[in-house]
Structure formats: C-alpha cells, structure tokens
Amino acid sequence: MKTGNPSVTIGFTSHRIETIAIAKQSMEEHDIIVTEEAPTPRFTDMLNKKIPIAEYIREEYLEFPKFSWRYYRLLRQLHYKGKQILQIEPYMERLFLIYEMFSDGKKPSDVLDIPVLKEVYTAEKKVTAALLDFYEHSLKSSFQEIVRAVMRFAGVDAERFRLRDMMRAGAIAKVFTGDKKVYVEAGGIHVFLERELRQKLRGITDVKALFLLEPFIRKISGKKEFLPPGDLLTIHYILDKRKNEHFETLQASRSLIYIIFLNKEEMIPSKTIEAPHIEDEIKINEFVSRLTVQQCEELYGKIHLQKREDALKALRI
Question: What is the pLDDT of residue 2?
C-alpha cells in the first residue's frame, strides 16, 4: 500500500500514554513503521493475535506496561491495515546477544573476538563503570565530586548514544526502498539519529522530525519543547559542543535535584489532566532551571535522602 511521496519521519517521543494518539495520526500516513526495539521472537505472533499483548509484555519484562499495552494494540491495528512493522535497534540487538553469550558461559574475551560485538561491549563497559563511579561518590563524596561524576557519566553515555544512533541509522537506511513512506520511532534524546539519517539519505529523500509531545508542551508552557537538565547535558556532549564548564556543572547540579522530584510511576491521562507526566516534568523543570549551583548544593544536602513526596512537601512544589 502506498501513501504518497517517499519520505522518512522521525517521531521523537517518550513512553507516555498521551503520545499514542498523536503517533497514530502520523503512523497511519506511512507505509513502514520502525519501532525502537531489538527484534524479538514473538513480536510477529503478538501482531497476528497468536499471543495476547499482555503475555508479550510479561515475557519481555517491559518497563512501562500501561503504555506498552496501548502502544502494541495500536501497532496491531496498523498491522491489520497493511502497514509493515519492523523492529530495528541493532545496538540493543547486539547487547542482548552479549547477554546470551555470558549466560552460556562465554567470557569477555569471546565477545571481544567478534568485531560487531566488541564496540557495543566496550561502550557498555564504560557506561557501567561511570554509573558505579557515580553511585560510589553519591554515598560518601562532596557535592562537587558527585557533580563531576554526573558529568563523567553523561559524557560516556553520550558516546553510547552516538554509537547506537549511527548503527540504527545505517540499518534504517537499508530498509528504505525509495518508494515508501517510513515512520521511525525514537526517544527524544536520540538527536544524533536525525543527523545520521539526513546524511545517509541526502539526495534520496526528505527526513522530517516530528515532536509528539509538542502540542502538550505548547499548551502548558507556550514552548515547542523542553529538556530536563540531564538531557541538556547529555545532548551537549552528543553534539560535540565545545567544553563549557559552567554550563556542564550547572546542568549536572540541577539534574541531581530534578531526578529527586521526578514522578517515576506511570500516570494515566484523564479528562482534566490530558498530559500528567508533562505537566509534572515542566513544573519541576521550571523550578530547577532557576537554581544556581550553590542553591542546588544546599538543597541536595537537605533532600537527597528524602522520599519524593516529602521533598515536594518541604518545598511546596
């Protein structure tokens, strides 16, 4: 089934229930839907109603089950309308293969002997080391040392995102036939994917960016998008911006406060609150974006051991 001139649309999104209706509108205008997932054995069975969606979600241990159930129901509907649904995420696919090798008793040296797995293993090893370094500092170090650990983690995480997006762009470019419209699902932080796809498909087709949360963000804040401090820092590193110690220190400091206040539970939209996650995140972001490094340090010392609800009550956010 053709839906018009060939093109690629990157739908920048998040695992929020409120994004599904907007994604549906765009997906229906495309021939091929590319999900941000590594291929799984039972995906086709789920699309063809051979297994229930709930069973598939349990088998895959998905982090956002309420979102996932609604999302896969949409994909199933699109599949029955003749859309081609593809899971393309080569970085994660290789990472899962590495996990399987280790579960089968293989050693790191066995992984490093396979070129297509070596770079993924190396990237993950750096990120894991940086994350452990952050956890260690967060337990016993000064605020300044914790902030530097956040910056180190964001730096290696950015390297991982660049590698992941380069791999994915190459794989997506291979499925672009030149006579179909392709919709690509991508998390909001995957800004490097857009750049890579534009380069790989230059002179072949247009690549458009669609921000699924934009209608909600505009309604709440009047802006096109917002980025929390941790994402601002990571994207700064992803795009190879020049070193800016003040900016990096400020965003790392603010991210430590932001993550304490962030509601990590899935919330379902209602008639009165159509985008509960975004409302919550914008409110927190507006607060932390006014904080200086010194204010972050003072606040962190007071609330970092508190539960989110107690920290919010203390500041009346």
Answer: 47
Task: Give mean pLDDT, residues 83-103.
Answer: 97
Residue 186 and residue 14 in contact, taking contact as beta carbons nearer than 8 Å: no
CA–CA distance, 190 with 14 (Å, rounded to integer): 11
Whole-prediction pTM: 0.92
Q: Where are the alpha helices (DSSP H) in the chain?
A: 20-27, 43-47, 53-60, 65-80, 90-103, 108-112, 115-140, 143-175, 191-200, 214-221, 229-238, 245-261, 276-288, 293-303, 308-315
Say whether domain 7-92+167-221 belongs to CATH 3.30.70.
no
pLDDT tens figures, 217-244: 999 988 888 899 999 999 999 998 788 9
Amino acid, single-letter form, for residue 139: L
Residue 6 has pLDDT above 60, yes or no: yes
Domain map (residue ranges) of the chain: 7-92+167-221, 223-317
Strand-pairing partners, residue 182, are 8, 32
Lowest mean pLDDT among 43-57, 167-181, 285-299: 167-181
Cα-atom radius of gyration of the chain, to the nearest Å? 21
